[in-house]
Amino acid sequence: MNDSIRRQKLFHRTVLVVDDEAVNRQMLGAILGTAYEVLYAANGREALEQVRIQKDLISLILLDLLMPEMDGYQVLEELRADPILRRIPVIVLTADRSAEVKSLQLGAADFLSKPYDMPEVIQARVRHSIELSEDTRIIQATENDSLTGLYTREFFFEYAHKFDRFHQEKAIDAIVLNFNRFHMVNELHGREFGDRVLCAIADGIRGILEETDGVACRYDADTFFIYVSHRSDYDHLINSVLRRLGEVMNTPEMRIRMGVYQDVYRAARLEERFDRALQACNSIRNQFGFSYAIYDMNMHEREVYSARLMEDFPTALETAQFQVRYQPKFNIRGETPRLCSAEALISWQHPEYGRVRPDAFIPLFEENGLIRRLDHFVWRETARQLGEWKKQYGAVIPVSVNVSRVDIYDPDIVSFLLSLVEENHIETEDLLLEITESAYTDNSRQIVQVVSQLRDKGFKVEMDDFGSGYSSLNMLTTLPIDALKLDMAFIRDIARDNKEMRMVELVLEIAAFLEVPVIAEGVETKEQYELLHQAGCDIIQGYYFSRPIDAEEYARFIMKEMALRTKEG
Ligand code: C2E
Ligand code: MG
Ligand code: MG
């Protein structure tokens, strides 16, 4: 089959017209040609040949009954005998009304009588037959996940509901099972091996379902949902999965984590029960080795708290509960540390909860997209403030804002940032952008594209939390960045632990190779400061110099720096 037909299939379905009379073929071709890709055959034998080669492509056959070499009845019989070909709907073309019954018995979907007069009727019947057959196929295809044979998620929820109806009194668990960093398996060993791994997990789950009442599905790529009668120990389920997994790979216990919503509260919707199991599962995302977690009161309180924060967000934004604070960054390359920029950090003064830490709401807002509105607020406020300082002090000391991974998918991000710069009469290099390392590893192509556009416009980009993600050296050399911000975790122990200090030195070497400065954040003590100074770190941010402070207080740092600059001339 040639590629042009394949490509057009995206837009046009393909219809095969089988008729021994050229004039009929032309006429049908003219009627259907605008809406479909039309293929032709002049007799039954040719038709079958075409169908066998292009069975994935042909959506419908228009079949004349009376033809030389092989007639339409024979074609119908052959098609019917083939489990795959019999799915293609056939409309029979005939002038003989008595032939209709026989052809319907042979599996024809519909018929058109000759001579063809009404093009609209033909078009409508063709369309109808195709739609009907595609609908049935979808229904048949989606009950079971084609890879593992477990239910697909739609059917899973349906059967789980049924399960609930039949087992009202029974204690039951909602369980989510996930394979850690599954994409790495695909990347390292190929998709085929990845598929085997997933099938092994499914087999392990099926083993349990054979002993206990329940249903299971593959929810998405590497996540499985299991709804089974409650048992007090989960090792049983785990071992069943690990045993199968152990047949295809090493250290299976390193790969699986599981969250359980135990003896579920049935007033909650089924989806909510699995949300809770998923929360439990995600609460151990960063642990090594095998583990499982059970949804508990703590998690429940956190869930309620999170729900409140989400609910309160719009009001908080309208009533100025959010404030942008600034934490100075100092260049420490010279004799004395000098203010070189600041990081804008959000702060939420909640009327009931008091000050809410960003760690409590940023990840939450990243999940549901609210982060975009919050970030826009911070960027707008920061740009406005920079404009004001510029007017006041005649020059700008740049400020960095955090750019969440969600923002990267915003098609207007570049124009929005540019408009802020223009409106406030500042320069693109005054508004630095911090993007967390893990955003790069999640979707490097998209991010490289967006970051390149931003840098083309003059924005400078700092890679935040460097060392917490999994960038490879190879990746780093191709990434467009202007600075590395070392993850705080490295700094914490440098004064105590020589190994940590070695890591910092290593990052400094990488940065030197990339020819970008290193910013160390979370520097709290003099000791840490001195170690970093000696090692050649360029810029420092942390409580050692200052906590994040409000604009007014930060302005004092600016004034001091401006005074030094004037003195130096
Ligand atoms: P980050 O971007 O890595 O910001 C640095 C965090 O470290 C800030 O926490 C800052 O207050 C804290 N920090 C600074 N110096 C020290 C120190 O010496 N010791 C210790 N222990 N901590 C220090 P904060 O303000 O709680 O923010 C936490 C995270 O929330 C930020 O990490 C950032 O990822 C995110 N975030 C904050 N504001 C925004 C925002 O406006 N938009 C987005 N998307 N994320 C934000
Ligand atoms: Mg940051
Ligand atoms: Mg950071």
How are the SSEs placed, and which strands pair?
Elements: H1 3-8, E1 13-18, H2 22-32, E2 36-41, H3 44-53, E3 58-64, H4 72-81, E4 90-94, H5 99-105, E5 110-113, H6 119-142, H7 153-166, E6 172-179, H8 182-189, H9 191-211, E7 214-220, E8 223-229, H10 235-248, E9 256-261, H11 270-282, E10 291-294, H12 297-318, E11 322-331, E12 338-350, E13 354-356, H13 358-368, H14 371-393, E14 399-403, H15 413-423, E15 431-436, H16 437-442, H17 444-456, E16 461-466, H18 473-478, E17 483-486, H19 488-492, H20 498-514, E18 518-521, H21 526-535, E19 539-541, H22 551-568
Parallel strand pairs: 1-2, 1-3, 3-4, 4-5, 9-10, 12-14, 14-15, 15-16, 16-17, 17-18, 18-19
Antiparallel strand pairs: 6-8, 6-9, 7-8, 11-12, 11-19, 12-13
The structure holds ligand C2E and magnesium ion (2 copies).
What's the story with the biggest beta sheet?
8 strands, mixed, barrel
Shape: elongated
Q: Quick one: CATH class of the largest domain?
A: Alpha Beta
Ligand names: ligand C2E, magnesium ion
- What's the alpha carbon Rg, rounded to whole Å? 33 Å
Number of helices, where a helix is a run of at least 4 consecutive DSSP H or I residues: 22
Average pLDDT level: 89
Q: Tell me the count of domains.
A: 3
Measure the end-to-end span. 75 Å
CATH architecture of the largest domain: Alpha-Beta Barrel
Strand order of the largest sheet: 11-12-14-15-16-17-18-19
User: Which spans of ≥5 residues are poorly predicted at pLDDT below 50?
Assistant: 1-10
